Amino acid sequence: MQVDFETLAQQVADWYNDSSFIEMRTKKQMCNILDKATLKAEEFSHIFKNIYDYFLIDDVLEIMQHARVNISKDISDANIILHRIGKVLNIRVLSDISKKFTSLADKKSRSNVDTSSESIKSLIAAGKDNNLENLNRIYKILSFAAQEGYNSTIEYAVKNDYINVKAEIFDKSMTNTYKLTDSNILIKAAYEGDLTLVESLYKNNVDMKYTTRDGENILHAFSISNNIEGVKFALNFFDINSVNSGNETALFVALLYSRYNVVDYLLKRDDVNTNIISTTGSNSDAVLFRIRENSMVIGRLLEKKSDFSKREKLRSKHLIDAVHAALKDNGTN
To answer: Per the UniProt record, which residue ranges are transmembrane (predicted)?
Structure first.
């Protein structure tokens, strides 16, 4: 069955924030879908946040060339796009320009409305219940405040302990679930790749060395979000080889979730130890685990008679056979 790119392009609202949809697509498929779609600014931002997590940077840039965005007269749309491009390219000046535009637009659009005060009211309304819904709610309030430069909101959240609302964050793949237990706003922000908020919390004397119940820290969380600048920031507070209770390093986590931009950065450092063994296996085991999942996806696509050419089908079959052989040699079923 052929992939209906036209239909997928018309149904962007149904999948733009679904990371599993992006993970199962090839570069060619994403280019074909975006060729036929016109995105909203928010859709563009979410799509390329997920694409950045699952594709190499050269492929991300190629896919981005196929994106068309309907930009409204509201400067916030351009700001959202500029902010995302800055994140993808790791060009901080673009993010700084984005924040400046936001600040100027805010001053122009509001007269005597104290937006920071409104954010504080939102925090009070949210309360301090420890559950994932509330953690997400408070994160959104504080992330907005950090982006807008409303430091009084961050100060209030720190002083009144809103940053220590906790919940478990689940990062799911097809056959595995990674849990960040007792995650507070700091871990949540790093997990989202939100370096702006993490730095705002740091400036307000939040302990950057907070760890979850299972020993994860912002270095693990930034590795999951594939944020190289976040990883660099976290290394000011943690050793590159620091481990959680499962003896998993940031490198292991990045390999497990195919965060290849972070993997590439960590492997280029002389101080990384590639021989640390976690309770679930070595770094090679983490790679093989992800390869097994990817081979499952290829197998399913072949079963569905997806849009593979004869050559691609043959190459895919050879790849799956090679994966099975590697897993067998490694003693992995």
So the answer is: none
pLDDT for res 41:
87
pLDDT digits (tens, 9 = 90+) for 2-30: 668 888 999 998 898 888 889 888 999 99
**0.70 surpassed by pTM:** no
pLDDT higher than 90, residue 82: no
Domain ranges of the chain: 5-109, 115-264, 283-329
266 and 251 in contact (C-beta within 8 Å)? yes
Task: Give me the CATH topology for the region 115-264.
Answer: 1.25.40
The count of other CB atoms within 10 Å of the CB of residue 152 is 14
In residues, how long is the chain?
Answer: 333
